[in-house]
Amino acid sequence: MMNTALKHWKEAATLILAAGHVRGADRLSLTASPAGESSCGRSHLPHKTLFDYDVLLLKRSGKSGFMPNAYVFPGGMMDVSDFSSEWLDIFKSFTSSPNFGLRSVKQPLETRPPIFATDRLKLGSPIPGEVALRICAVRETFEESGVLLVASKIKENKLLKSIQEFGCIEHYEVNDLCSSELTKWRVLVNQNPSNFIRMCRELQVLPNIWALHEWSNWLTPAGRYGTTRFDTAFFICCLQEIPYTLQDEKEIECFQWSRPSEVLQSYQARELWIPPPQFYELSRMCRFPLLNDLHNFASQRATEGCERWLPVVVSKDKHHMSVLPGDKVYPVDTSGESEVAKNTGSQSKDPQNAPPLHRMVMSDPYTISLQITITPKYNHVLPVVQPAVSCDSESQL
């Protein structure tokens, strides 16, 4: 079940969905050369023509109570139906395997983010959190964009073999349902999330939880976006080509498939607004202009685990700074109401002894400067860092 003991946050799941250009992307492969080798030293955004894939962004309604008009990845709050015991019958062939055949994460349980580490059985659900979070991400993506990530139950034996061999199921095809069938079920699922279970049963399909790779975990900081705050698991999935997509005309005003660098440039040109987590993750994706490299990196890195990130926001003059774990002033207490540590001592001018920085400095809603000197945990990559804006955050803290 959902963790109702959380004091500040509601649990949610988000999906970063990348899709290859029909004519440009090579077939995804798990045996390609190590991902991102040639791009690890990148210090500027790759030109948009270098990307062979797009990422899906949805524009939230201006009437939304949370981040109105923002361009975000598809996703949303967990529903009680995501933990329903009815999923046991739908995933019957996989329930004998730990976490329904999802690969084990190497990260010790005591350091796992609570959204992944919580024992859901003790909360009354037989569905593991790792599974329920992915069901939520697939369901919300379908509700908001019409993109349905499912695998046919008719091919269960093939799915089981693929899991045993590769530890995951690659998502070469989204679905073969006609648009009218998709529209019908989408309306029903939007009306009641539990209809997603009914849909899977009637259509003889499984949410393709194995194609979703763990990527990150972001928490909403205090006092920034209203009273609602989320503890959100971010997953990533790579598709061969852009699927049939449509907005829900309720929470979502429109959608767009764009190259990561193109989105960041549009943001800097004030043509659209993206929240800080989207800015950070899109900047990370700029390490991988090729879909195959992104896919390989995401798939291989996912078993390392991830770190829970609660940004602590500091305001001074006209600037806002979002301080992340690893920064020299990030608080030890991350209960959600902490303040950053006070700076002490003189600053070293020796780059070899530079203090650890992990922060986003915002001079206005459309100008973010990433200042990062830390080494990322769990074999993750740093974002591509753009030239700094004209503000000195070092002197502020």
Give a written overview of the molecule.
This protein is globular. Strands 1, 2, 3, 4, 7, 8, 9 and 10 form an eight-stranded mixed beta sheet that branches. Strands 11-12-13-14 form a four-stranded antiparallel beta sheet, covered by helices on one side. Strands 5-6 form a two-stranded antiparallel sheet. It has ten helices and 14 strands. With 397 residues, the chain is α+β, with helices and mostly antiparallel strands.
Q: What would the keywords be for this entry?
A:
four-stranded antiparallel sheet; alpha+beta; 23% helix; 397 residues; 10 helices; 20% strand; single chain; eight-stranded mixed sheet
Broad shape: globular
H/E element order: EEEEHHHEHHHEEEEHHHEEEEEH
Biggest sheet character: 8 strands, mixed
Detail the poorly predicted runs: 30-42, 388-395
Fraction of residues in β-strands: 15-25%
What is the average per-residue confidence, as pLDDT, rounded to a whole number? 83
